[in-house]
């Protein structure tokens, strides 16, 4: 066998030993250009999808931001525009990561900064679309095609329109909503067609080198998010409180007033918690009226009983963790004045300490015959390390909000609120709010309410404080919060009390 025949035989053997080439459609599916474009466009689609259910309004945009990072990573060396798009996507992805983790905490941006963060997020979203549009035009020119890429410009206009509608307070409408969705679908379809045109023109993407595979980057990102969320739920869910040791000694005058109040029937467990300033306001008290009850913040257990042919289901609470006491002290003077105390004490561990809130409906809010005489005050107490500690409320004062109650939904009203957190390592946690009210006319009942909101679980996202949740949704009987309602009601003319408690 001569030389040419041997070379021909060798070529045949080499050809037979090689695997068959995959079909062209498979080659296209795994091409770097198509894969990158599909990931980027899928990310853009998810960034603009809003489904307010099961947390999808947070999950889908976050996944979209990550897909954009993966899609544009191989394209970042194609031209300067795509490089600018890549860095814009990275910066926005980091911002999304921070916001996701922040959502597991009660940490809030300083006043005014939150609006700046929102503007920054929208600005980066617009900027990444702009650079993608310009980058695709440059790629088409490089491939010998008309610059085109009008779909990229249309996508930019579409996003600007949606933002403007949000700024003017557009609440949605079926026809316009369908038009926007249809337009968005058409724009994305045009961008998908653009990627096919690039391949048909023979354009081949030269993927930029990466140090981490997509899978490794996804695992690292997921681990950072999981760790951040866990840390937020465990350590970022309490309000900063100024706890200080309570002075052991008290002025002799304060002790004398305590004795006077005790003689009038003031509950001693509540009396022991009053500050000297509140005791001084009670000097010369003429009468004391009080009421007390215990309330559960657990789900209890269900029992089934049979009454004749009827099956009765009821809930039994073996433990009632929260004790609330209402006390009214009649003050001396020509005008009838009362100092009202709403006191709470945790007599059993509720299992979770996050944030707490108190909504106060004072007598002047409920009866025209009463007016405010002095501002609402109060304090918190607990035992730690064998000592008594005290702290002011994180917030105590009036809040104007849009009510969501059954009788006054959608109306603006102003109530007194307190917001606070109790220490997880403390015992015998307790506190009170108090105010002085004066009678404007005879014959009116003194009616005062306290709504106590307790966080029962860490399981909520985004995390809200008890005050924020109460202002948003009002009454709570399940979920991450539970509301307990207490009323002290009596006639000042005879001192007879009536009581209404509801949990």
TrEMBL record:
<feature type="transmembrane region" description="Helical">
    <location>
        <begin position="84"/>
        <end position="107"/>
    </location>
</feature>
<keyword id="KW-0472">Membrane</keyword>
<feature type="transmembrane region" description="Helical">
    <location>
        <begin position="119"/>
        <end position="136"/>
    </location>
</feature>
<keyword id="KW-1133">Transmembrane helix</keyword>
<feature type="transmembrane region" description="Helical">
    <location>
        <begin position="148"/>
        <end position="168"/>
    </location>
</feature>
<feature type="transmembrane region" description="Helical">
    <location>
        <begin position="216"/>
        <end position="236"/>
    </location>
</feature>
<feature type="transmembrane region" description="Helical">
    <location>
        <begin position="174"/>
        <end position="195"/>
    </location>
</feature>
<protein>
    <recommendedName>
        <fullName>DUF4153 domain-containing protein</fullName>
    </recommendedName>
</protein>
<feature type="transmembrane region" description="Helical">
    <location>
        <begin position="55"/>
        <end position="72"/>
    </location>
</feature>
<keyword id="KW-0812">Transmembrane</keyword>
């Amino acid at each position: 066998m001569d030389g040419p025949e041997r070379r021909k035989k060798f070529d045949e053997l080499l050809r037979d030993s090689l695997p068959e080439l995959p079909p062209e459609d498979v080659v296209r599916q795994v091409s770097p250009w198509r894969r990158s474009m599909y990931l980027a466009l899928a990310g853009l689609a998810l960034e603009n999808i809003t489904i307010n259910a099961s947390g999808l309004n947070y999950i889908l945009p976050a996944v979209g931001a990550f897909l954009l990072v993966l899609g544009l990573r191989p394209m970042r060396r194609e031209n300067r525009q795509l490089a600018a798009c890549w860095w814009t996507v990275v910066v926005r992805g980091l911002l999304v990561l921070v916001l996701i983790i922040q959502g597991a905490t009660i940490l809030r941006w300083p006043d005014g900064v939150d609006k700046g963060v929102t503007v920054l997020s929208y600005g980066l979203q617009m900027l990444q679309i702009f650079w993608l549009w310009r980058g695709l035009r440059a790629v088409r020119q490089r491939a010998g095609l008309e610059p085109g890429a009008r779909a990229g410009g249309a996508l930019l206009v579409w996003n600007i329109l949606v933002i403007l509608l949000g700024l003017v307070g557009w609440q949605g409408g079926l026809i316009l909503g369908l038009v926007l969705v249809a337009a968005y679908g058409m724009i994305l379809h045009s961008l998908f067609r653009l990627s096919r045109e690039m391949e048909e023109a023979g354009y081949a993407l030269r993927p930029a080198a990466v140090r981490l595979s997509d899978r490794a980057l996804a695992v690292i990102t997921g681990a950072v998010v999981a760790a951040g969320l866990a840390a937020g739920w465990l350590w970022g869910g309490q309000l900063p409180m100024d706890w200080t040791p309570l002075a052991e000694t008290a002025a002799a005058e304060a002790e004398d007033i305590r004795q006077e109040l005790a003689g009038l029937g003031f509950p001693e467990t509540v009396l022991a918690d009053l500050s000297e300033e509140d005791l001084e306001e009670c000097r010369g008290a003429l009468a004391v009226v009080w009421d007390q009850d215990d309330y559960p913040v657990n789900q209890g257990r269900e029992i089934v009983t049979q009454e004749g042919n009827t099956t009765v289901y009821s809930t039994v609470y073996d433990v009632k963790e929260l004790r609330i006491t209402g006390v009214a002290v009649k003050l001396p003077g020509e005008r009838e004045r009362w100092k009202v105390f709403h006191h709470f004490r945790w007599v059993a561990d509720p299992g979770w300490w996050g944030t707490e809130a108190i909504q106060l409906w004072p007598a002047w809010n409920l009866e025209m015959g009463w007016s405010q005489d002095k501002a609402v005050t109060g304090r918190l107490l607990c035992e730690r390390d064998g000592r008594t500690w005290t702290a002011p409320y994180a917030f105590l004062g009036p809040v104007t909000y849009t009510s969501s109650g059954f009788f006054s939904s959608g109306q603006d009203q102003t109530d007194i609120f307190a917001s606070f957190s109790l220490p997880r390592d403390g015992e015998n946690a307790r506190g009170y709010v108090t105010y002085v009210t004066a009678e404007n006319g005879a014959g009116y009942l003194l009616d005062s309410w306290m709504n106590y909101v307790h966080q029962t679980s860490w399981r909520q996202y985004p995390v809200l404080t008890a005050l924020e949740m109460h202002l948003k949704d009002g009454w709570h009987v399940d979920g991450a919060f539970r509301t307990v309602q207490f009323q002290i009601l009596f006639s000042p003319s005879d001192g007879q009390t009536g009581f209404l408690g509801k949990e």
